Amino acid sequence: MKRHVRSRYWITGVATVALFPAGCIDGSSDGVEALSTDEVPLVTGAPLIGAASGRCLDVKGRSTTPGAVLQIYTCNGQDNQGFNFTSAGELQVYGGTRCVEAQNGRTSPGTKAVIGNCNGQARQQWTMSSAGAIVHQQSGLCLDVEGRRTTNGTAVQLWTCNGQTNQQWSSPAGADTQAPTPPSGVSASNVTCSSATLSWAASTDNVGVASYDIYHDGQQMTSVSGSTLSTSLTVMPGVSWGVYVNARDAAGNVSQASETLRLATPHCEADNQPPTAPTNLTGSASGTSVTLQWAASTDNVAVTAYDVHRNGAKVGTVPGTASSPPARSFVDSGLSAATAYTYHVVARDAQSNASPASGSISVTTGSACSTAVCEVVQVATDNDLPWGLVSLPDGTVLYSRRDADDIVHLDPSTGVKTSIGTVPNVAGTDGEGGLMGLAIAPTFESDRWLYIMHTSSTDNRIVRIKVIGNRLDTSTEQVLVSGILRNKYHNGGRLRWGPDGKLYASTGDAQNANLAQDTSSLSGKILRIEPDGRVPSDNPFGNYVWSYGHRNPQGLAFDSQGRLWEQEFGNTVMDETNLIQRGGNYGWPNCEGTTSQGGSGCGTSGYIAPKLTYRTAEGSCSGIAIVNDVFYAACQRGTRMYRAVISGSSLTGVQQLFVGTYGRLRTVEPTLDGDLWLTTTNTGGTDSVPNNSNEQIFRVILGD
What we know:
Layout: E1 11-12, E2 15-16, E3 49-50, E4 56-59, E5 70-73, E6 83-85, E7 91-93, E8 98-102, E9 113-117, E10 126-128, E11 134-136, E12 142-145, E13 156-159, E14 169-170, E15 184-189, E16 195-201, E17 209-216, E18 219-225, E19 230-234, E20 240-249, E21 261-264, E22 279-286, E23 289-295, E24 303-310, E25 313-319, E26 329-332, E27 340-349, E28 361-364, E29 373-382, E30 386-391, E31 397-401, E32 406-411, E33 416-422, E34 435-440, H1 444-447, E35 449-455, E36 460-468, E37 471-484, E38 495-497, E39 503-507, E40 525-529, E41 545-548, E42 552-558, E43 564-569, E44 574-579, E45 591-592, E46 595-596, E47 612-615, E48 621-627, E49 630-635, E50 640-647, E51 650-657, E52 665-670, E53 676-680, E54 695-702
Antiparallel strand pairs: 1-2, 3-14, 4-5, 6-7, 7-8, 8-9, 10-11, 12-13, 15-16, 16-19, 17-18, 17-20, 20-21, 22-23, 23-26, 24-25, 24-27, 27-28, 29-54, 30-31, 31-32, 32-33, 34-35, 35-36, 36-37, 38-39, 39-40, 40-41, 42-43, 43-44, 44-47, 45-46, 48-49, 49-50, 50-51, 52-53, 53-54
């Protein structure tokens, strides 16, 4: 019986796309009219229509078996014609249960396009050009209708891109995967101590810009509509922020960021009066640590920091704000045993007026270490940012230089450094992207594979390259995971091997928070990967995703029970430490730490609460390490290292070490013999300019 009714979906602009020309509904034979949409369920995805034929990309025979070939066929609205691009670069069908790939992983012209289980591998990575070409990223070939034929059942293959109409595809509304162009021309006016007007030039988009998101230094400030090109911002007096704008379309695609505008605000009133000197300074030693205490200074506005000086040199800062006065104590750790040290303290206000020095005291350390940290030894300096660091079996280390794109071999016993080579295709983001995490597998001594996570000009990716002798052999490079979205900030970047022999990686949300809740996207996730780049068969979502709902995770470490701990940057309220569960949802963007931010908030069923939270002013922690079930976190904005004992599934006895002593801390890693490596990230951290830093690498000798 023939039943003809109207189509219920796939409308583009004001014209309805003709989707049901005469033909067979199952894609197997001619001569039967298409069924109505009342008889065909609506499916996830949208058709991809060939420009030459007017027919749809179709999985032959409606098969879901991996290896089933693709063809063109009369558009019929069934699920074997519903495709969607994911943010990870996959071309999915059947609601995301299958992905289009190159048959048998081949990369030569004439290779058939088939379906397979989605796994995130390079053979399943595609992009759609503005001209409608669907380009296979591994081979550089285009999705092509064989022989330029237009009849039902014609096979679809990979072929050299040529711009002909048998390589052009279009999608109706609802299948928009093209992000807007970056905004430009960012400028500020009407700058006061508490507000500023930010303006920018419009982005363009294939459909239309729906909104603009305004950030400073990775933290979102506000959003405005796509028709708005300026807005008033609330700012802090006397700060210097890196402000930029992202564009977003209605489909949720987010542009790359605009250029960064350095916005410096004045203080609300001139203040030339320094605080009074701190008084009643006292100190006591416990092993090789010294604890200092003092009475508060006063100021005509407010004391906002205390600087601690040891033997005449500043060794730490206790920060605060006008509304939250700084603490009046400081622990100086990692000193030499049986040594006398002289201390004094200076108070500062928000405009850097410094008080006279307090009175000096002398404190002598104990004869032996009896504290958590016994000694801190500088082993090297660098003029770029040491980001990833890994110990080699011989006790030497390799570390990545984020903005210089190379890997350095360091012998800590001599301080000798040697660049072993530049990683191909690394690109900065004028923010926090570049050459990031490193890891070596337990099999490194035999196979020599070094695993690397880095930003490229198009994505974030995980590669492996062999280290031959003292040289990075770039001819051996293998791209294991690609298509992880990049942006100016929120790129994640840490790698860590698990006791299960799998590689774990942290990825940021690429400043598109909604992706964190999308388990088909690789952004805002912890990923789990086989050593050769395959998807482990027991991963919870059939792809690389191990856990989700993350904003910008960077720290990963395993405890003695084989449990994975993770460190994550919050937005403006709090950072968090999480104990990761298989398939777990950690709540972003509806939940930041323990603070509800949207939807049903942190009380949402299924969200997993953090084990520890930190105010962002005291956190921005990046790397973490676990030694003998003691947890350590290296923090940037907080300029400190946290220490906590793992007890059951809790972090107990939290201590703050090196507060302000070494500045911003990026990476902490275990040494082979149970101590720590620690790196700084004090200058050049948000500009992607190589060799404009002044950083240190320390060995932290641990005690009890």
